[in-house]
Amino acid sequence: MNKLSKLGQYGIFFAFALICLVLALSTPKFFTVSNLLIIGNQVSINALLAFGVTFVIITGGIDLSLGSMVAVTGVAAATFAHPDTYPLVVPLLVGLGAGSAMGAFNGLVVTKSKVPPFIVTLGTMTIGRGLALILSKGRPVSNLSDSFNFIGGGNIGGIPFPIIILLIAFAVCSVILNKTILGRYMYAVGGNEPAARASGIRVSRVKMWVYTICGLLSALGGILLTSRITTGQPNAGAGFELDAIAAAIIGGTSTSGGTGTMTGTLIGALLIGVISNSLDLLNVTSYYQQVVMGVIIIGAVVLDGVGKKD
Amino acid sequence: MSDYILRIKGISKSFSGVKALDNIHFDLIKGEVHALMGENGAGKSTFMKILIGLVAPDSGEVLLEGENLIGNNVNETLKKGISMIHQEILIIPELTVAQNIFLGREREVSGKKGLLSGWLNDSEINQRAGALLDRMGVDIAPKTKMKHLSVAQMQMVEIAKAVSNDAKVIIMDEPTSAISDKEVGTLFQIIRDLKAQGVSIIYISHKMDEIFQISDTISVLRDGKYIGTKSAADLDQNALIAMMVGREIDQMFPEATQPAGGEVLSVQNLGRAGKFSNISFEVKSGEILGLAGLMGAGRTEIARAIFGLDQWDEGEISIKQSPFCARTPREAIDRGIGYVSEDRKGLGFIPRMSVKSNITLSSMKNHRKGGFINTHSEQSVTEKMIADLKIKTAGADQHVTYLSGGNQQKVVIGKVLLASPEIIILDEPTRGVDVGAKFEIYKLIRSLADRGMAIIMISSELPEILGLSDRILVLSKGKQTALLSRAEATQELIMRYAVA
């Protein structure tokens, strides 16, 4: 029984290693440096969003507005990123500020209104989409500066810049979750909210933080995407929230709250990336890719359930 | 020998190498109430699970009227005549009483065949349920939705369900843990009626007085072994406890060694609309104030108000002469108040977090380096508390959900203590805790008082209130009816004021 639960806990790591092994053996192109960097680059945006939503899910919440926040923050940053207008720091601060503000708004409504986070963020998802269209007047915002475009398209010593951002974000998020009091309180709030409150934890404050951090990471994703496609697209990011939530869940974060790790989420995001990459290499059409992805999501949760049984 | 309805012979069961049950024997006579006693971890619940077919034993027999039931699953065992009333009641709140009683047996009741067998026959269900409840003397309408019933009424419905299954043996697991004294009376009457009809009851409870009130025979398990069976008339409380813990507990309630000091907490004319009114008392340093009363008397509500979980409407609270009003538990904790809730699972601990994370949850500010956790000081404080409170755990990183009730309670108390309180409110501190651990918790409470803390203890167990309190405040229907000194208080006197 103990062995089985250990297997469930680490199942995702095994599954990931196994899939990589099989791919390395079946397609010689898979295990090349250039292909791995491509995967890392592709995965980076989803992973950033997944880190954010992992915090939220651990506290027992959910955030469906990630994709819309990607669009709003991307458009907002692009508006200030035309060549020879503002220094690079301005579009970055505008984007990150917009994301944090939207996240904080989610947190505020969730904590003050008692409306379930699913409904609140369903609402802000639509609001965000509307804001992105208003800000851009419905048109793509293009003609961005080279320095801005470097964020999503450049590389340092051959390593794409998005991968560097991804690794830094992963480290910071892991530290927040494991080494800080805020992280401890997130698990407590998700594990048993009334008990956390009775233990003197300011539950609303923890939730405000969590949604704000999630907004901030979405903004980082939005800036990366805008920079990569060198355009602020008001329609960008649609459906991103589902991939991010899927990564967290595949990585072992329970939707009932109280459990989850950043490492698990990172593996979850990589798994999604590796599978779509390899199916590309194997010439599987994108229609089938979606079916495979769905099976993997359900499989991961089933495996997780096996691990949790006493 | 023919009057044995159920004979259990040589049941053993191991879980991953650990013997949970070792050669258990148990005989049940037709029409008796047979109490099964034992501390938490003695093997009672495994034994029950084997009895109802949920777990298969490694060896042994369960003979119901001579027929071996081993190998039957839960449904088959139920049909053969063994029903269990679970501690946590399993009902569907949105369905009616009648629908719950016949849940899963709609086809039998409707009696229709073929294509029509999927149709419900609610009128028949209602009629049968009504007749059944009438026969039991229970005044519940079959069409009432389950969610509108009290816990006690839900229990009656569960019993009715067992009866409707033609149960020959009904197992009751802590049936009185969540119902009032008056409802206990009704429950006992129903048990006596069932006895008269030849139904046998296996009764599990931690409450000694109930055991002696209702049972004919008492069997004891300890550490997975069968210790013995005696007639209830041949046992007294001390002898039974000795059987359960394997040693004599000579003095259940430790005496105070320090005289009480100055006033710490004062409550004047406290009131909350619909819950309680005009409550006034003070607690001194080193003193234990007992709060007695029936369920719903407002005791927990007063504790919640002081601790900032609920607001109040009128009156004053002061701590060491300065007025105080907590809007959140955080404020109460910061002013030196600790609260150990009666609802341990709901308000006490985070099940999927470790002993360490739980125990330091209220005092993280002592383990912070900036926003980061000082894991070193956290670990050492936790280990010290585990040793001080004798918490039985595999280690500081063990998840609390795997601890026994008594040890979970100690973790909660440890958490409260680490926030350095001057006032501790203990709400039913020994609920669901076995006898050995109870004794330890009593010692702990007294030693906290001796260290100068002011203690308010809410309890529904009168021996506990009488044994431990220096003064006793009795409440009835949200009003205080008496403030008794330890010398003048008796069970009868407290009960008289509690129903006043």
Automatic annotation (TrEMBL), chain A:
Annotated Pfam families: BPD_transp_2
Entries under InterPro entries matching the protein: ABC_transp_permease
Protein name, as recorded: Sugar transport system permease
Entry keyword set: Cell inner membrane, Cell membrane, Membrane, Sugar transport, Transmembrane, Transmembrane helix, Transport
Highest taxon in the source lineage: Bacteria
Transmembrane segments: 12-31, 37-57, 88-111, 118-136, 156-177, 208-225, 287-306
Subcellular localization(s) per the UniProt record: Cell membrane
Membrane topology listed for this record: Multi-pass membrane protein
Record's keyword annotation contains Transmembrane: yes
UniProtKB/TrEMBL annotation, chain B:
Alphabetical list of InterPro entries matching this protein: AAA+_ATPase, ABC_carbohydrate_import_ATPase, ABC_transporter-like_ATP-bd, ABC_transporter-like_CS, P-loop_NTPase
Residue ranges of every copy of the ABC transporter domain listed in the record: 6-248, 260-500
Molecular function (Gene Ontology), one example: ATP binding
Top-level lineage group: Bacteria
Entry annotated with the keyword Glycosyltransferase: no
SUPFAM superfamilies associated with the record: P-loop containing nucleoside triphosphate hydrolases
CDD domains from the UniProt entry: ABC_Carb_Monos_I, ABC_Carb_Monos_II
Pfam families to which the protein is assigned, alphabetical: ABC_tran
Keyword Transferase: no
Keyword annotations from UniProtKB, A to Z: ATP-binding, Cell membrane, Membrane, Nucleotide-binding, Repeat, Sugar transport, Translocase, Transport
Gene3D superfamilies assigned: P-loop containing nucleotide triphosphate hydrolases (3.40.50.300)
Protein name as catalogued: Ribose/galactose/methyl galactoside import ATP-binding protein 2
Organism field: Dyadobacter endophyticus
